[in-house]
From TrEMBL:
<dbReference type="GO" id="GO:0005524">
    <property type="term" value="F:ATP binding"/>
</dbReference>
<dbReference type="GO" id="GO:0006750">
    <property type="term" value="P:glutathione biosynthetic process"/>
</dbReference>
<feature type="domain" description="Glutamate--cysteine ligase">
    <location>
        <begin position="10"/>
        <end position="383"/>
    </location>
</feature>
<dbReference type="Pfam" id="PF04262">
    <property type="entry name" value="Glu_cys_ligase"/>
</dbReference>
<comment type="similarity">
    <text>Belongs to the glutamate--cysteine ligase type 1 family. Type 1 subfamily.</text>
</comment>
<dbReference type="InterPro" id="IPR014746">
    <property type="entry name" value="Gln_synth/guanido_kin_cat_dom"/>
</dbReference>
<keyword id="KW-0317">Glutathione biosynthesis</keyword>
<keyword id="KW-0547">Nucleotide-binding</keyword>
<dbReference type="InterPro" id="IPR007370">
    <property type="entry name" value="Glu_cys_ligase"/>
</dbReference>
<dbReference type="GO" id="GO:0004357">
    <property type="term" value="F:glutamate-cysteine ligase activity"/>
</dbReference>
<comment type="pathway">
    <text>Sulfur metabolism; glutathione biosynthesis; glutathione from L-cysteine and L-glutamate: step 1/2.</text>
</comment>
<dbReference type="GO" id="GO:0005829">
    <property type="term" value="C:cytosol"/>
</dbReference>
<protein>
    <recommendedName>
        <fullName>Glutamate--cysteine ligase</fullName>
        <ecNumber>6.3.2.2</ecNumber>
    </recommendedName>
</protein>
<dbReference type="GO" id="GO:0046872">
    <property type="term" value="F:metal ion binding"/>
</dbReference>
<dbReference type="InterPro" id="IPR006334">
    <property type="entry name" value="Glut_cys_ligase"/>
</dbReference>
<keyword id="KW-0067">ATP-binding</keyword>
<keyword id="KW-0436">Ligase</keyword>
């Protein structure tokens, strides 16, 4: 058991600060493809009844017009957040006619990448910039990778906890600087043990072979049924280098040892020219092909399993918001869509993440060197492709260690945190969630990836038809259930308001698109120089 965690929890209890943890806030962003009844990608435009994808607070699109993204407000109640997410799904399904929501991370059958329509946000400068950014992603990496879905978990701790924790550590920095430094500390430890999240929650061991679209793969895929590929011990093909990674970014030295260091690394990436992307061109025959030819067009292009975040003001760059006002919350990005949930995530997952992220915060977190960061990425890749393999070894402190042994130590270190949260929230659900996932550790067949692959192999079924069955089942379930938090009128009003807001943005534009882009990119050196 971790001595540092035990000491912190004991000190908080002795000083009567047990309740300081109350008020954890969480928000969910869930991505899902719209598909036709036969499982093919929907080619229809974003439904007007769903509101403006540019301005709607809960329903938008990601890379593609067919790739929906559902966003819950940040809230303190897990069940309420899930009820909000379920209602967003429920309303959306009622607007889609015969279309379904794809329940998996890896996409459905797609003939070629040109079937994936870019998301459209209207003729305003900000709307055109969002679409052009996606055009740049298509030109750089292809559209197939961008059709992958995930779940992002946004997490922040209450000010009452930060004040108590700063007092406990006898830290004399400003509260903003202290909070930022502690979130970065959490992120470093998360990077060290993110492989556990992929093992427990990875749910994409198989995929449609159309995803490869003639590309070569270094993986020894096995074939299943008419058109599926799988790896016997894989947990999350989404998190492999087939999926949401960017080999061009591997040379970036973006580190997490301090907020200025992180911002500096991102700033370098968004301002450093790339010979490879210069060959694409920025404006070719009068038509924009990408926002710019730098290593990253904008900060969001940096594919990381976790990000420090700060709510931005209109037109503000993410790095500038962080530089001015510090880290507000973190965004966990290593989560596959949970195919066994109609809304892509469960309450048990959220409670486990609370415990896991608090472990990452409270455990000692020395600086993470570039060399060690490479080791963390290698460990993650091993678990991505071979996580359910018996006797899998990872590297810890330069020495090989059985993944199973390391994971058991992590569970032992996390259990006191689960107990602390249960006492503070007057429940037993945190410890129950830990026990549930510990069973998945003991038996890899109980993981989502294990359950999916065992079903496919025993039923001799393709991945696509199985996901279609789940999509059909969830559609019927969502249509049959009443709203839990919002009402139909709430969604109608939000959609109408979002269309009005988009019209106001379009009417307020005074600059040419070229001037708008120039002004936007001018902010980076200005804010980092402050």
């Amino acid at each position: 058991m971790s001595a540092s965690i035990t000491a912190v929890l004991s000190s908080l209890q002795q000083q009567g600060l047990q309740q300081s943890i109350l008020g954890i806030k969480r928000g969910i962003e869930r991505e899902t493809l719209r598909v036709n009844q036969d499982g093919s990608l929907a080619q229809s435009a974003h439904a007007r009844a769903l509101g403006s994808a540019l301005t709607h607070p809960w329903i938008t699109t990601d890379f593609s017009e067919s790739l929906l993204e559902f966003i819950t407000p940040a809230g303190e109640d897990i069940e309420q957040t899930l009820a909000q997410l379920a209602d967003i799904h429920r309303f959306t399904v009622r607007q889609l006619g015969d279309e379904r929501l794809w329940p998996a991370s890896m996409p459905c059958f797609i003939t070629d990448q040109h079937q994936i329509p870019l998301a459209q946000y209207g003729p305003s400068n900000v709307g055109k910039m969002k679409t052009l950014y996606r055009q740049g992603l298509k030109n750089r990496y292809g559209s197939m990778m961008q059709a992958i879905s995930g779940v992002h978990f946004n997490f922040s701790l209450p000010q009452s906890f930060w004040q108590a924790y700063q007092q406990l550590l006898q830290d004399d920095a400003t509260l903003q600087d202290f909070v930022s430094a502690q979130y970065l500390s959490l992120i470093r430890n998360y990077k060290r043990v993110a492989w556990l999240i992929v093992y427990l929650f990875g749910a994409s061991p198989a995929m449609c072979q159309s995803f490869l679209e003639g590309r070569q793969s270094r993986y020894a895929f096995q074939k299943l049924g008419k058109g599926s590929l799988y790896l016997p011990y894989a947990t999350s093909l989404r998190m492999s280098d087939l999926g949401y990674t960017n080999s061009a970014q591997s040379s970036l030295n973006i580190t997490y040892n301090s907020l200025p260091e992180y911002i500096s690394g991102l700033h370098a990436a968004v301002t450093q020219p790339s010979a490879e992307y210069q060959s694409i061109g920025v404006k070719v025959d009068g038509v924009f092909q990408q926002l710019n030819s730098n290593v990253l067009q904008i900060e969001n292009e940096f594919y990381s399993t976790i990000r420090p975040k700060r709510t931005t003001e209109s037109g503000e760059r993410p790095t500038c918001a962080l530089a001015k006002r510090g880290v507000e919350y973190i965004e966990v990005r290593a989560l596959d869509v949970n195919p066994f949930s109609s809304i892509g995530i469960s309450a048990e997952q959220m409670r486990f993440l609370d415990v896991f992220l608090l472990y990452c915060l409270l455990e000692q977190s020395p600086p993470l060197s570039a060399a060690e960061q490479q080791v963390t990425e290698q460990n993650l890749k091993k678990v991505v492709t071979d996580g359910r393999r018996t006797n899998l070894e990872l590297l810890q402190d330069g020495q090989p260690r059985l993944m199973q042994d390391w994971a058991e130590q992590l569970f032992a270190d996390m259990m006191p945190i689960a107990k602390w949260l249960d006492q503070a929230y007057q429940t037993d659900r945190y410890q129950a969630a830990m026990r549930q996932y510990y069973l998945s550790l003991l038996d890899p067949a109980q993981t989502p990836s294990g359950k999916i692959l065992n079903h496919l192999l025993s039923a001799r079924q393709d991945n696509g038809p199985y996901m279609r069955q789940l999509a059909e089942s969830y559609r019927s379930q969502l249509l049959a259930e009443p709203y839990q938090y919002y009402s139909e009128q709430d969604f109608v009003a939000a959609a109408e308001q979002s269309h009005l807001r988009q019209q106001q943005i379009e009417a307020a534009d005074t600059l040419s698109f070229e001037q708008y882009l120039a002004d936007y990119f001018r902010e980076v050196p200005a804010c980092t120089a402050e």
